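$ ./design --mode recover --in tokens.txt
reading tokens...
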């Protein structure tokens, strides 16, 4: 089992791709948190990725962990990425249920966490 945890040295292209994903996801997450902090309580914003996804800050967090997986594609990082993705998907689903129960918030065209997929 020891060999499953051996991470190879990352290729430069992996580092560049991961860095770009990390920067965009971190910046977008910062924007989304600012939008949420200035939002009226318990309403769904209609800016940026919030137009398409109920929890874009969770999507951004998943992309940050994906960037780590791109740099070090070994079993440890696969498990970490899957843990974060599953955990945030469950949390996003709970947010979806909450917004769905609030009749005054329209969410019919929104995905839960991953734009255009789920």
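writing sequence...
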């Amino acid at each position: 089992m020891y060999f499953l945890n051996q991470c190879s040295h990352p290729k430069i292209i992996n580092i560049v791709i991961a860095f770009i994903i990390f920067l965009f996801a971190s910046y977008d997450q910062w924007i989304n948190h600012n939008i949420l902090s200035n939002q009226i309580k318990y309403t769904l914003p209609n800016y940026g990725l919030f137009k398409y996804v109920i929890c874009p800050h969770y999507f951004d967090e998943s992309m940050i962990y994906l960037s780590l997986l791109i740099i070090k594609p070994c079993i440890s990082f696969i498990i970490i990425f899957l843990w974060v993705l599953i955990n945030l998907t469950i949390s996003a689903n709970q947010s979806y249920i909450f917004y769905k129960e609030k009749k005054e918030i329209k969410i019919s065209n929104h995905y839960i966490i991953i734009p255009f997929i789920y």
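exit 0
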